[in-house]
Design goal:
- This protein is mainly α and about 325 residues long.
- The chain has 13 helices and two strands.
- The longest helix is centred in the last third of the chain and has 38 residues.
- It is globular.
- The N and C termini lie close together (about 5 Å).
Length: about 325
């Protein structure tokens, strides 16, 4: 089986997965007490039961749950993800508007994680069982254990309030302006800390294992500089394991963005998802969930492509 067929097979396999995720998500929202109508008119004592029933009928919320899901699925396949009941905004418009902010935050998180994990993992492997290795273990344990919402609040307290290096709220400027990119550093560090800690330990373990193999001994016997042996030979083979874990950590970064966006008041899909859950906006919840699933599929496909680049011996047979 060629590489193209492999990718096609992976894409087809994800269809039933996304279908199952949409069913489970729809059922969980439906089983949650209350609905958008209750939240919209709950504080208005002048709305009668008849008015509530009429509003539910106008929004299609009076139909059986399987009928509501069927309507959503058919419309979703045509690119229509419905509206947000409370504001009457198109869900697709919200996705298009908020997606760039979430992507930018995720990129900053990954850049921070890789810039910290790879050099630190290399240093820990080269200095195995020495002081630097022990310090890296402590830092990794700290990074994995610390809650990202607490870390975000501490970064805001120290760097925004005490040192006044960052603003507390995101500036009202274009996404890729200098001030916005500067503001993204703190949430990027917050969302990438746990991933960097995990990747650092994977990088250290993988490199320590590779350095004990015969091809490394042969390279040293040929008189190659230690720097060349580490960076050209050992590093490339070690990155295969890091790539595997990095693809799975994409889910953690996407999940962490929900909390981080709320802490930093970042206008991305994570904050919209929180508001949608509070408002029982099932159309928006389903759309964000499906886009998250698609992002995970893309991340795993990119990891498969990276395998072939890092190790030409890999074949998709």
């Amino acid at each position: 089986m060629g590489f193209r067929r492999f990718i096609l097979k992976r894409l087809l396999a994800v269809v039933p997965i996304l279908f199952g995720v949409s069913i489970i998500t729809f059922a969980l929202v439906y089983l949650t007490p209350g609905d958008p109508v209750d939240l919209m008119v709950g504080m208005n004592p002048h709305v009668s039961a008849a008015d509530r029933a009429r509003i539910r009928a106008d929004l299609g919320l009076d139909a059986p749950v399987y009928v509501q899901y069927y309507r959503w699925m058919i419309n979703g396949l045509q690119g229509d993800f419905g509206i947000v009941y409370a504001s009457n905004r198109e869900v697709s418009e919200i996705i298009v508007t908020r997606l760039p902010e979430t992507v930018a935050l995720g990129i900053f998180g990954w850049v921070f994680a890789l810039l910290i994990a790879i050099p630190t993992g290399i240093y820990a492997a080269v200095n195995k069982d020495r002081a630097g290795d022990h310090v890296s273990r402590f830092i990794a344990l700290f990074g994995i254990s610390i809650p990202n919402f607490w870390l975000g609040l501490m970064l805001i307290l120290v760097f925004a309030l005490w040192l006044d290096w960052w603003s507390v709220l995101a500036p009202r400027e274009p996404l890729y302006s200098t001030s916005m990119l500067w503001y993204l550093i703190l949430p990027g560090v917050t969302i990438g800390t746990a991933a960097s800690a995990i990747l650092m330990r994977i990088m250290r373990s993988s490199m320590a294992e590779e350095m004990n193999k015969d091809y490394v001994t042969a390279a040293r016997a040929k008189g190659l500089p230690e720097r060349t042996v580490i960076l050209k030979h050992v590093l490339r083979n070690s990155l295969i394991s890091v790539t595997t874990v990095a693809a799975f950590l994409t889910a953690g970064i996407l999940a962490g963005s929900v909390v981080v966006e709320v802490v930093f008041n970042w206008p991305g899909l994570g904050r919209e998802l929180v508001n949608a859950v509070v408002g029982r906006e099932v159309n928006l919840i389903l759309a964000i969930t499906l886009f998250t699933g698609i992002a995970l599929v893309i991340a795993n496909l990119l990891a498969d492509i990276a395998y072939a680049v890092l190790d030409p011996r890999i074949r998709y047979d």
